[in-house]
Amino acid sequence: xxxxxxxxxxxxxxxxxxxxxxxxxxxxxxxxxxxxxxxxxxxxxxxxxxxxxxxxxxxxxxxxxxxxxxxxxxxxxxxxxxxxxxxxxxxxxxxxxxxxxxxxxxxxxxxxxxxxxxxxxxxxxxxxxxxxxxxxxxxxxxxxxxxxxxxxxxxxxxxxxxxxxxxxxxxxxxxxxxxxxxxxxxxxxxxxxxxxxxxxxxxxxxxxxxxxxxxxxxxxxxxxxxxxxxxx
Length: 232
Fold this sequence. Notes:
Elements lengths: L1 H26 L14 H5 L6 H10 L6 H21 L7 H10 L2 H17 L5 H22 L4 H9 L10 H18 L8 H8 L4 H10 L9
């Protein structure tokens, strides 16, 4: 009985290793997407108007992985909320609102594309990576996936830099002011869409570092209306 169990365990381990190897190739394939980024009317989207067709196509593209659709929806919701808060926050910090909105929308794109590749291959193979394996692949490939995507999708250069720089401010000192917008906007987004994962007081602490008052943060919280843009 023990030998059979050991044989089965070895077979599962070999299968997971093969799956991981295939995922590495999947991650490098960036899905086709086109958008006239400069023509998006963010004021209409985040000011109460209708959703943009480009954003609707991007939303459908990013969650196209049945095995991980719940996680991908959560990442989309964080991304669109970050974009909305970045668009509102940018004028307060002297950044460009439209560029900040694009950067906020794409700030987790590397993670999204890596997880999408994992989910699509899991669905095809009938297997599933454990949490540690998924995390390792996202850590290994998310930056590369983001870089490939912003180039392939012709994202404006400044927005592409901001999308990468928000969590590596020390590596991009020339973009620190812009990246700070996305950094704070993400905290506010998590507070809005996933409050159980938001450290109490982190928004206020980050805002204070940027010399934003409690009154300013309160106006920003009240001014962002995104419920109709979120996926359930």
